[in-house]
Specification:
Blueprint lengths: L2 H45 L3 H12 L4 H13 L3 H13 L3 H13 L7 H12 L4 H13 L12 H12 L3 H13 L8 H22 L10
């Protein structure tokens, strides 16, 4: 092949490669757009109480790699006790860094549903999720430090991480965390210095949250009628 022909051939190959790359990127974009639309349709059906249609749309999106759809489909399967299938979709979502998927998979490892029970793996996944701000994961970690679980020993439950996640859960008005933090300021637990004033502030917060929860749990009162 002459130098001129070789240069022409190389140019042609570069154009061909660029064309294929453009086609691949376009196909990928269209597939993602389709997944997003299927996910939106699935969420809409789920919120309307149409679980069958929701699952159909969500599965289309999930199998195209949509992390949110993978989580929601897993959640539905989990609620229906299709545990192994739920674990599969939770795992796919978690692998993409979806915090809900990470929490869902953590829950399955914690209980041993659909997968062999593994408290340490559950804690690892819950931590990944909580570090993204997932409220359920924050509560899960806090509760494990308060009452035990997720493979935590007695020493670990008194350390700096315990205080971190109990404090984070207390900021979410999680009642057991508020109570634990108030008691910690009374006794100096978790490495805190005893602080009666802070303990009193937290006790007041506990009372406030309890009242709010009690009010939310009460049935609506009938309106009084006048004559």
């Amino acid at each position: 092949m002459t130098k001129v022909k070789r240069v022409a051939f190389e140019k042609m190959m570069k154009k061909t490669a660029a064309g294929w790359l453009t086609i691949c990127l376009l196909a990928s974009s269209l597939a993602y757009a389709g997944a997003a639309e299927d996910y939106a349709a699935g969420v809409k059906a789920y919120e309307a109480g149409n679980v069958v249609d929701a699952m159909s749309a969500l599965k289309l999106a999930a199998d195209q790699g949509h992390a949110g759809a993978q989580f929601l489909l897993a959640h539905i399967l989990d609620a229906a006790e299709f545990n192994e299938e739920a674990v599969n979709y939770y795992r796919l979502s978690a692998r993409q860094g979806n915090s809900d998927g990470q929490f869902g998979l953590a829950s399955m490892y914690a209980t041993g549903e659909g997968v062999e029970k593994n408290p340490e793996e559950a804690r690892k996944l819950a931590l990944l999720s909580a570090e993204q701000g997932n409220k359920n994961a924050i509560v899960m970690l806090a509760q494990s430090y308060i009452s035990g679980g997720l493979g935590l020993d007695a020493q670990a439950r008194q350390g700096a991480d315990a205080l971190l996640w109990i404090r984070r859960a207390a900021e979410l008005d999680y009642l057991p965390a508020l109570i634990a933090l108030a008691n910690a300021y009374k006794t100096g637990q978790y490495g805190l210095s005893a602080d009666p004033a802070m303990a009193a502030t937290l006790d007041a917060k506990v009372h406030q949250v309890r009242e709010k929860k009690d009010a939310e749990g009460k049935p609506p009162q009938p309106a009084s009628g006048g004559q």
